[in-house]
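From the methods appendix. Each design record in this collection lists the tokenized structure first, followed by the designed amino acid sequence. Records were kept in a plain field format so they could be parsed without special tools. The example shown here is representative of the layout used throughout.

RECORD:
FOLD TOKENS (242 positions):
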């Protein structure tokens, strides 16, 4: 049985690179978009998930999006958020280990100030890690950057956040019109002169039911997913996003 589609149909043709833009979003420089770089079947691995798990569906979509946009000639993924969380996490582990070792080697009464200091520092690091993940990283799953040359060096930066739109609580049974959806918010920046001159700042958003990308056996229809992602990203690049 073919995968279900949302009411927002996928167009069979890539979004054209030309087109007018409004306001300050207009830019004469048009680097290649994701749809202009073809993915061969040999580049894809089979993706199969448990259709009953929304978490598995979202994780599969997140991973497929990262692979698709990180291809050569597209965007180089920036792992800043992951690096910060890992640094804070490892710092907390080191502090906890050092504090425990100090408390074991030094007399209990003598070690109390040091143990308390280590404990407080561990709590601070753990709290910072949690706050960073919630308030700074949030739902961001991909940050990519690319530099191209078209009469001048152009730097592009794309930031993508994802989340699941759950089934409405007013309906007891999921249906094609009321099913969990994969929602994306895309921010696209284009600048030159080392980021001093902003050429474009655009946003785009879109959502699609998971059933549009996965068949009844849980196999991902990657061509449909990639085309949808490509259209959204190119829409943001061209200032045509919502």
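DESIGN:
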């Amino acid at each position: 049985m073919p995968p279900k589609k949302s009411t927002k149909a996928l167009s069979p043709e890539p979004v054209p690179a030309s087109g007018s833009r409004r306001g300050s979003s207009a830019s004469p420089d048009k680097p290649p978009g994701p749809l202009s770089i073809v993915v061969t079947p040999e580049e894809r691995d089979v993706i199969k998930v448990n259709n009953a798990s929304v978490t598995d569906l979202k994780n599969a979509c997140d991973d497929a999006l990262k692979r698709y946009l990180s291809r050569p000639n597209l965007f180089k993924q920036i792992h800043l958020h992951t690096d910060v969380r890992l640094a804070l996490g490892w710092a907390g582990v080191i502090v906890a280990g050092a504090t425990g070792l100090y408390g074991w080697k030094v007399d209990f009464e003598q070690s109390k100030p040091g143990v308390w200091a280590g404990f407080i520092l561990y709590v601070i690091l753990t709290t910072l890690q949690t706050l960073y993940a919630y308030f700074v990283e949030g739902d961001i799953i991909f940050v990519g950057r690319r530099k191209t040359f078209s009469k001048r060096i152009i730097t592009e930066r794309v930031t993508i956040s994802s989340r699941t739109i759950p089934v409405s609580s007013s309906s007891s049974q999921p249906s094609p019109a009321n099913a969990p959806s994969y929602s994306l918010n895309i921010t696209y920046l284009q600048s030159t002169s080392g980021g001093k001159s902003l050429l474009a700042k655009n946003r785009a958003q879109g959502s699609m039911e998971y059933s549009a990308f996965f068949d009844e056996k849980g196999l991902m229809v990657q061509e449909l997913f990639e085309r949808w992602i490509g259209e959204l990203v190119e829409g943001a690049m061209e200032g045509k996003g919502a």
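APPENDIX NOTE: The helical segments are 54-69, 80-105, 108-137, 222-237.
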